[in-house]
Amino acid sequence: MNNNVIDINDVTCLIDGDRILDSVSLAVSKGERVSILGPNGAGKSTLLRCVMRILPVSSGSISIYGTDTLRMRRKQLAARIGYVPQRHAGSCPFTVGEYVLLGRYPHLSPFSFAGDRDREVAMKALERTGMIDFSERSFDTLSGGERQMVQIAAVMAQGAEVLLLDEPSVYLDPGHRSGLMKLLAALNSEEGMAIVTVTHDINEAILSGGKMAMIREGKIIFTGDPELAISSGKLEELFEKEFVYCEHPVTGDAMVLPDGRWENE
Asked: Sheet holding 194-198: strands in order across?
């Protein structure tokens, strides 16, 4: 029995004639964590946008629980998958509470309004993400990191089974970053949510657990355990540089160290 929530099969994406994704295949199982790594311009964010049908697939297919996404209505797709982009474009004329309540739209019938149950779900999501005290604040007044947490709360209110995140920790200070990573770990382990994260942070990908998927020049060059990625030299191949490693004193994982002081040679 196929236990995959997402099946990406031989997907190619052309944008203005440029081949951004080239015959990409990737499967995400129920409750799995996947970290997508690659250099700038490799096609990582494009892959997430193709899954969400923000960008069209030129060839190949993407299915959710065996159903091609092209055959799914937008509300059906939103009920299954939540997406948090790297940046929230433009102004948003809602309070934080109203924004998270919008996450309930896949569960509402046409011309219906959110009810008490929907508000309860939205408030619980805000509480879970630590953003309940911001519920009356305008979304536009939030920092980048606060917006990320509110967007994750909206996905939780959706009841999505899969969460796609595009560099979620890029705006966060160390304290908020740790809080986000712990929240994602809890959503994964306690609620069985499959989580797919695009990141440039190798250590973040290692400590998140799950598997790594590496994209270079629009092609998948590796999918598997982080330990194998390190021992096989795939990280060096991916980024075309050598890395210095050390053992994490708590987890025992191999961590990537900075090369050293940034000095002219």
From this structure: 81-84, 162-166, 194-198, 33-37, 211-216, 219-224
Query: Among 165, 155, 195, 199, which Cα is nearest to 40's?
Result: 199
AA letter at 175: G
Residue 84's nearest CA partner among 34, 190, 156 is 156
Question: How far are the Cα atoms of 106, 161, 197 from residue 47, in angstroms, in the given order?
Answer: 23, 18, 11
Place of tokens 């309540």: 101
Tens of pLDDT, residues 131-158: 999 999 999 998 878 888 898 899 888 8
Q: Tokens 């059906």: give the residue.
A: 76
Specify the pTM: 0.89
Q: How far apart are CA 66 and CA 95, in angstroms?
A: 37
Domain ranges of the chain: 4-257
Element (H, E) at 237: helix 234-239
Give per-residue pLDDT as tens, 75-129: 888 888 999 987 665 678 889 999 998 888 776 666 566 777 888 889 999 999 9
Answer yes or no: are the C-beta atoms of 29 and 3 closer than 8 Å: yes
Q: Which residue do the tokens 């700038």 mark?
A: 40
Distance CA 216, CA 237 (A): 9
CATH architecture of 4-257: 3-Layer(aba) Sandwich (3.40)
- For residue 34, give both structure tokens: 């996947």
